[in-house]
Write a structure and sequence with these properties.
Keywords: Oxidoreductase. It is a single chain. With about 180 residues, the protein is of the alpha/beta class. Helix content is about 35%, strand content about 15%. The protein has seven helices and six strands; from the N terminus they run E-H-E-H-H-E-H-E-H-H-E-E-H. Strands 1, 2, 3, 4, 5 and 6 form a six-stranded parallel beta sheet that branches. Helix 1 packs across helix 7. The N and C termini lie close together (about 5 Å).
Length: about 180
Amino acid sequence: MKTLIILAHPNLAQSTVNRRWLAELEKHPDRYTVHKLYDTYPDGKIDVAREQALVEAHDNLVFQFPVYWFNCPPLLKHWLDEVLTYGWAYGSKGKALENRKTGIAVSLGAPAEDYRADGAVGYGLAEVLRPFELTARYCHADWQPAFAFHTIDSNAGYDAAAEQLVAQSAADYLAHLEKYFG
């Protein structure tokens, strides 16, 4: 089973976590196709037919992105709005995502304890990112648990300990994909 990873990072060259995850995914081209939205559509004009065909050519679908203001980067939101059309993704004849394993892999620049009822955010990560689950379920996709990596704040610097955490996150990400999408 091959998984399509829709990678939506507006500045991948400056990324620590998503760039490392990408490097690990690219070691397994037989299992994962990584589709970099910002490289493919620098002008923001989505080729809907191409994107729908790409999704249809894969068994599973994962959206990988850094969380921005409790949401995804704008091009991914635009992709969702343009590609998940009535009659293709949902509606009485929209079956493209039906039973397709779908999930998200996110990086966050805040510690996990911030994403609790008593934390700085005041809500759990599942609550914050619920619209992605709702979208998948509305399209009758088989929603899988989210993969999340917290604590690497690009504004706080990067040291050997952080590098080790990122390396472990990449291994954990691949294990997550194997468990839920394998």
